[in-house]
Amino acid sequence: MDNLQPGDIIEFTEGKGVPIVHRIIEIDEEGNFITKGDANSKPDTDPVTPQEVRGKVVYTIPKLGWVAIGIKEMFLW
Q1: Distance, CA of 25 to CA of 10 (rounded, Å)
Q2: Chain CA centroid to CA 57, Å
Q3: Domain that holds residue 37
Q4: pTM of the predicted protein model
Q5: β-pair partners for 35
Q6: SS3 helix, strand, coil % of the chain, rounded to 5?
Q7: Consecutive 10-residue runs of the chain (77 residues): their mean pLDDT?
Q8: Is residue 25 in some structural domain?
Q9: Distance separating alpha carbons of residues 76 and 25, to the nearest angstrom
Q10: How many domains does the chain have?
Q11: In what order do the strands lie in the sheet with 53-56?
Q12: Dist. CA 46–CA 33, nearest whole Å
């Protein structure tokens, strides 16, 4: 993915291929992305390599994530 920069929101895979959507907060000297979830207080511990990036978020629907959170919480009770 070319032209990614701090502030962009990306989807990447981690570990066992689990998709994660976080914001780029920095690009290190090796070209890896330092990311952080908007609701997280600290950056992710591992940098994201360009090969792990699956895509860039170009459009969002505000508050749609609350639906997913509500559904997950229903199953945790």
Answers
A1: 11
A2: 9
A3: 9-76
A4: 0.75
A5: 24
A6: 20, 30, 50
A7: 89 87 96 95 95 89 79 74
A8: yes
A9: 32
A10: 1
A11: 33-36, 18-27, 9-14, 53-56
A12: 9
